[in-house]
Specification:
2 domains, 5 strands, about 280 residues, elongated, alpha+beta, five-stranded antiparallel sheet
Length: about 280
């Protein structure tokens, strides 16, 4: 069967947007800075994990952190014995692309640096405590992260649409068409009981926000690639991509319109937030 460019990207979308039946894990990579040194980190199972070699490099001031770790584990038998419980191989950005790298959460990192005699240990502990205290911060709140990413994607699609002569009102209809497909024709705003001055997105859970964001990115890509010019063409494209997300969810026995509304994300309280403004 011949695969077109458009079907190819939709196939990629279908394969790339993977769900587990009851729960999904979203990996989020980020580089954090300790005294001008990079510490690669990944958000996993509701907390930050840090690349152990990066931590050892800055705390021990080692030019060969991997070798230092080998010696450290030999020097501290208890650390070596519990190593498998302390570190977890997670996918993290490297110079060669995404690779599985030994990472540890805050407790694990504290255990490791406990065995490192260094003047940097205490400053690093204070830095780590500060990072760990940001549990409510948007960087650690997956739902807020997902919401802001969706709004950023919608803003890019909005700019693309406006450049093509599509009005703001027509753009809202494009978004509504996507929701119509994602929720199987159910008026999700009415189902959520959303106030007139609020958006349904503000009440959606993390799973739906990421799904909508992914569909929006595909729509934006295909709009530019295929040079879509009318709101009708963009609506059809957006409906198609949201239908694909819906089907992925249904395949995992998740019915989008049956997922309950969550507490509203108060966007006006998000620091410096302008992601919900499509017409700045």
């Amino acid at each position: 069967m011949k695969t077109t460019a458009k079907s190819g990207i939709n196939l990629w979308c279908a394969r790339g947007f993977i769900f587990q039946a009851n729960y999904y894990i979203w990996f989020m990579n980020e580089v954090k800075i300790f005294e001008h040194k990079e510490i690669r980190s990944v958000y996993y199972k509701n907390e930050w994990y840090f690349a152990v070699v990066d931590v050892v490099e800055v705390v021990a001031e080692s030019s060969n952190p991997s070798e230092y770790l080998k010696k450290l584990r030999r020097r501290d038998p208890e650390l070596g014995k519990g190593w498998g419980q302390i570190v977890h191989p997670l996918s993290i950005e490297t110079k060669g692309g995404m690779q599985r790298t030994n990472c540890a959460n805050k407790e694990g990192i504290l255990r490791i640096i406990q065995s490192i005699p260094s003047k940097n240990a205490e400053p690093f502990k204070r830095w780590l405590a500060k990072v760990g205290s940001q549990a409510i911060d948007e960087k650690n709140n997956k739902r807020i992260v997902a919401f802001k990413k969706l709004k950023e994607s919608q803003k890019r699609l909005y700019d693309n649409a406006i450049e093509r002569g599509i009005s703001p009102e027509e753009f809202e209809q494009i978004l509504d068409a996507g929701d119509f497909s994602l929720f199987g024709g159910v008026d999700i705003k009415a189902k959520y009981g959303v106030a007139k001055n609020e958006k349904a997105d503000e009440h959606m859970n993390t799973l739906l926000l990421y799904g909508k964001g992914f569909a929006t990115e595909i729509t934006n890509h295909n709009t530019s690639r295929d040079n879509l010019k009318s709101s009708e063409e963009m609506s059809e494209e957006h409906q198609s991509n949201n239908s694909l997300i819906r089907q992925n969810l249904l395949d995992k026995n998740i019915v989008p319109e049956e997922l309950p509304a969550e507490k509203r994300i108060e966007i006006e309280k998000l620091e410096g937030d302008d992601t919900n403004k499509l017409d700045d």
